[in-house]
Design brief:
With 265 residues, this protein is of the alpha+beta class. It has 11 helices and 4 strands; from the N terminus they run H-H-H-E-E-H-E-E-H-H-H-H-H-H-H. A 4-stranded antiparallel β-sheet has the order 2-1-4-3. The chain starts with a helix and ends in a 6-residue tail after the last helix.
Length: 265
């Protein structure tokens, strides 16, 4: 009989197996090893994150704001790029990933100028953003399984012996030690024009060093730039976001915050 961790790895690598089912196996492993932090993360993925609380970075997605014009139907608001967190269970996220387009009503209406101010709103998302969320969870599960194996924690015969449990406890597999992997990512510590507040996040997103240097230079210039030169620096920042959008994904939001760019312009 293969070990529990080996079976878990096989399930993670099986693209036909739902991430929901794989998380259930991960929950068994974390419970048997008394890894409460990881079990808490798994529970949040399975049942959904509490509304209003922070979510992991990979659960942030950028959509397009639309309003319902009484004569023309749903129309896109110019510049209406909206970042939203998704609190749904991973099962619901997997269902979203099967749809071509997903429409979500914002929890509160986005402030808009007339003639859009009083019109019904929705945010449109491509299924690719939800596929990305599902694969992000799968990647994190794989990383965790490899860490367990590396430390000799295998779970033969569906059980872990005291040595394995002690190894798990001594190494402290918890959310804090998986910053950017398991940890909740909040943007409350992102300071305007402060590159240091987003440096680690950009590294985890694998933004190349030369690109990080360019953004750091822009933010440094913004700190002391007179008001008349700031618009051009902001435009450079926007161009930087567009150039690195593929790697940034939903992480573009923290760069916009550092640049002082509102979500809707």
């Amino acid at each position: 009989m293969s070990s529990l961790v080996a079976k878990f790895q096989k399930d993670v690598l099986d693209s036909k197996k739902s991430v929901t089912d794989t998380l259930r196996t991960a929950k068994v492993i974390s419970a048997k090893l008394d890894l409460n932090d990881i079990e808490e993360w798994i529970g949040a993925e399975l049942t959904g994150y509490p509304d209003g609380e922070s979510t992991p970075n990979y659960r942030q997605a950028t959509g397009t704001l639309q309003v319902e014009n009484p004569y023309r139907g749903w129309i896109t608001v110019a510049g209406g790029s909206i970042d939203m967190p998704f609190f749904h269970s991973i099962a619901q996220i997997e269902e979203f990933a099967k749809l071509e387009t997903v429409y979500i009503a914002p929890q509160t209406n986005i402030p808009l100028l007339p003639p859009y101010a009083s019109l019904p709103q929705r945010v449109v998302f491509s299924r690719t953003v939800f596929k990305g969320m599902v694969e992000a969870v799968r990647d994190r599960l794989l990383d965790w399984s490899l860490e367990l194996e590396k430390r000799g924690i295998t779970g033969e015969n569906m059980a872990f012996d005291e040595h394995e449990k002690e190894a798990a406890r001594s190494q402290i597999f918890n959310i804090q030690h998986f910053t950017g992997v398991f940890g909740n990512v909040t943007h409350s510590n992102v300071n305007i024009y402060d590159y240091s507040s987003i440096h680690q996040e950009l590294k985890q997103l694998k933004i190349p060093q030369d690109e990080r240097n360019e953004l750091e230079n822009i933010l440094d210039e913004l700190k002391t730039a007179p008001p008349e030169t700031r618009p051009s620096l902001i435009e450079r920042g926007k161009a930087w976001i567009v150039k690195n959008q593929e790697l940034l994904g939903a992480g573009a939001n923290i760069v916009r915050q550092a640049l002082g760019i509102p979500d809707v312009v």
